[in-house]
Amino acid sequence: MAAAPEVSIESRDDVLRLVLNRPRKGNALTPEMMGALTAAFAGAAEHVGLRAVTLAGAGKQFCTGADLGWMASPPTVEQGEALAELFRTIAECPLPTLALVQGGCYGGAMGLVAACDFVLAAPDAEFGFTEVRVGLAPAVISPWAIQRLGVARTRELFLTGERFDAPRALELGLLSRVSDDLAAAADALLDALRAGGPQAQRAIKELLLERDETPSERDARLARAITALRDSDEAREGVAAFLDKRRPEW
C-alpha cells in the first residue's frame, strides 16, 4: 500500500484545501512537505473558480515546527532559502489564505500562520517562536512575524521563546479569531469572502505587497490599479447589483 502524502491537497467547491498529514509526528515539516506546500500555493491562482486556500493540520497538532531528524542533518543555505520561499509564496498567493490551527504551532509553523491572511484557532491552540530554546533563531520567519505583530512584540517573543495560548495570540494580533468550531468559523469567513469580488480581492492582495518604490511611483501604481478595477466587468456588475438591491453574480 502506498504511503499517504505528507500534504493532502483537495480542491472542493471553490476552496483549495491543504492539510499537513504527518499526525504521528506532530505534522513536523520536512523538505518534501515544504516543496509540496510551495507548489500548491504557487499554483492556486491557476485553478479556475477558486476563491481561497485553507491550511490545516491532521490530528491533534497543527504543526510542531521543523522535523528534528531533518534539523539534525548538516545545514545548507539552500534549506533556509526553501523555507523562505515557502513563506513568501504563501504571503504572495493572489487568493485569500486561511490557516486553521489546533494544538501546537511552534517554530517554523509560526511562519506558516504569520504569512496567511487569516488565522483561526481552537481554544486549545498553543503558539511559540521556540527556536531560541534550542540554540537557534527564527531568521526566515522574522519578516512575516514583524509584519503581523510589530517589532516590539516580535522582539519579546523571539528572545524569550515563551509559549502562549490562543487568547494571548488573539490579543497580540496573530489570530483573526478563536472558535470552538474551526470548520464552522472557516465556513463563515469563506462566505464573507465570497461576498466580495474575486478580481477586486486579488487586486487588494497585490496592493498590500511591500515594494521598493518612490512615493510618486507608488501613487501612479495605485492610480492605475483603481482605474483598471473601475473599468472591469466585475465592478460594473457590483455597482449594478448594489443599485438593484441584489447579490452580485461573481
Can you walk through the features of this model?
It contains eleven helices and nine strands. By secondary structure, it is of the alpha/beta class. The protein folds into two domains: 187 residues, 2-enoyl-CoA Hydratase, Chain A, domain 1; 49 residues. The strands form two sheets. The chain has a six-stranded mixed beta sheet, sandwiched between helices. A hairpin with a 2-residue loop joins β1 and β2. α5 crosses α6.
The CATH class of the largest domain is identified as Alpha Beta
Number of helices: 11
Could you please say which CATH topology of the largest domain applies here?
2-enoyl-CoA Hydratase, Chain A, domain 1
Number of strands: 9
Ends distance: 43 Å
Rg computed from alpha carbons, rounded to a whole number of angstroms: 19 Å
CATH architecture of the largest domain: Alpha-Beta Complex
In CATH terms, the superfamily of the largest domain is: 2-enoyl-CoA Hydratase, Chain A, domain 1
**What is the N-to-C succession of helices and strands?**
EEHEHHEEHEEHHEHEHHHH
Strand content: 15-25%
> Portion of residues in helices?
40-55%
Number of domains: 2
| Low-confidence sequence ranges | none
**Widest sheet: strand order?**
1-2-3-4-6-9
The overall pLDDT average reads 93
Largest sheet: 6 strands, mixed
Based on CA inertia axes, which overall geometry fits?
globular
- Estimated structural class: alpha/beta
Task: Describe the protein's topology.
Blueprint: E1 7-12, E2 15-20, H1 31-43, E3 52-57, H2 68-71, H3 77-91, E4 97-101, E5 104-106, H4 108-115, E6 118-121, E7 126-128, H5 142-149, H6 151-160, E8 163-165, H7 166-172, E9 177-178, H8 182-194, H9 198-207, H10 215-230, H11 233-244
Helix pairs in contact: 1-3, 3-4, 4-5, 5-6
